[in-house]
Amino acid sequence: MQLVTLAAHQQLPAIYSFRENVEIAEEPWKRLALIAVVAFVLVVELLNYDISNNNITNAAFLGTVGMDWQVMGFGNFGSLGETDMMLRLALTGGFEVSDINNQITNAAFMGSVGLDWQVGGFGNFSSRGESDMILRNTSTGGLEVYDISNNQITGATFMGTVGLDWQIVGFGNFSSMPGETDMIMRNKTGSLEVYDISNNQITGASFLGFIRPELQIMGFGPFNGAGTSDMAVNIGFTGAFEVYDIANNQITGAAILGQVGLDWSPGGFAADPPTASTGSAGSTSQLVQAMAGFGGGSGAAESLNTAPLAAEASQQTFLTTPQHA
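Above: the chain's sequence. Below: its structure in token form.
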């Protein structure tokens, strides 16, 4: 597991930076790639950095994207075992996926969703080993999951509603159930709630506990060991990093990682993929854990024929018995 940090650069107007795992044929379990997105006046320039043994081993120019497109996240959307990029058009809510293999090899428009829906994150919510997408309604707190395969939205399911005082902070296999991508939410008091997700449904909810308001959640990853989904936090006024081990929907331990100067900010977390297929739930989860919770336009199913369900959420007990809306 690597912690990647960024320092402010006065000459390059970089406004986005994302790091994710990709399979490189020569070293499939030891290589990862950094995709840096650098903003200029009219376009966004995309650069891909291959990283091995803590060194940048190659850099490749991916292309440019108009400034009206925003990077939403990364996943195996093309079902080819690659790490692809999801973009969204800020004015219309349109989604486009770019297939990436050290260069953009294909682009596919997937459709548009209303701008009152925001991207929550990506993971194996359908339990099919896909990179699916969760969107949240900014007015109601409703959660909608989109199944994605072969660069197409293959289905949409409404999962329920959570109060707007709760925010999505990340995704991972917190339940320790093989293949799941679960969701953690946090409210203004610092309370943490985990939602187990399987087959596009919320199958359970557990209260994890409280973390102090000054602690900023940085991301999730296997900090305690392969196959785990632990939580890294930053104590903002000191620069110290702390990790919370999570298993079976419980916080099982905590450890101080160390301290970094306040002029450095985390850019993301990445780990070597597990020894499973790239499209597996575990690898999909690791690819997107650190990406969840960022802002951006998003959407839910205005035109898809799904049967929405609604569920009331209390302060600590969420998504109880679904009722028809």
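The radius of gyration is 19 Å.
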